[in-house]
Task: inverse folding
């Protein structure tokens, strides 16, 4: 039985506590941007590269303080 995406992130968080998962994709790529939002990735920055706007995000199991 294949792992769910949530299960993979849980495994990653257990195996490498405190380490973030990062993602970089073009903002025009809806097929990447939608799952990133659903999975809880947070935008770090946007920048131009390869002639298009890029999106850099991070997911972490660590609870933000504040």
Result:
């Amino acid at each position: 039985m294949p792992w769910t995406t949530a299960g993979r992130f849980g495994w990653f968080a257990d195996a490498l506590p405190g380490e973030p998962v990062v993602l970089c994709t073009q903002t025009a790529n809806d097929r990447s941007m939608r799952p990133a939002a659903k999975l809880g990735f947070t935008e770090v920055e946007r920048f131009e590269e390869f002639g298009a706007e890029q999106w850099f995000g991070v997911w972490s199991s660590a609870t933000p303080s504040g």
Q: What stands out?
A: Residues 22 and 58 are 4 Å apart (CA to CA).
